[in-house]
Design a protein that fits this description.
The protein contains 7 helices and 7 strands. By secondary structure, the protein is of the alpha/beta class. α1 runs parallel beside α2.
Length: about 190
Amino acid sequence: MNICVFGSSSENINKEFLDSAEHLGFSIAKRNCGVVFGAGKYGVMGATARGVAKKKGKLIGVSPKFFVEMNVLYDQCTELIFTETMRERKGIMEDKSDAFLICPGGMGTFEEFFEVLTLKQLKRHTKPIIIYNVRNYYDSMIAMMKNAVDEKFMTENCNKLYSIAKNEEEIFEQLDNYKPFSYDKYKE
């Protein structure tokens, strides 16, 4: 199984986010799963990669070519795939992954989450999507999603397309017991 980890590229975040990401990478590799990520050496992405590398696990980085000149790439990937665009990058990450973990991050991470969520809603995949809610980071987004249901911009079924985990134990339990869920948003 390859698990896509989306997360921050910032180093200017609370160390607890970085430590949890590094431990997560180690734990994923310990379970003999590969990690697909955005190939960055900084932030949650880099910490996850370092955790995978400590266990000598499989690490698939996907990066647009212009990141090379920015000197932001993690240099110990098992496989490093280059793309022309960010859009192509996400497509490859989605295709190479069997599950998605949404770790704390900023606008890029939000965009990645909402893309895989939208694709799942449109029945383009049935893969698990798990929000890793370290330090309750995603509580306000979860409240926003509930508000969207309350205001009838989406149905409660949309919030069943992903799950929330507060720790690694919950992540792996959800992955191990995952049962695909889909619905037809146009027939509700």
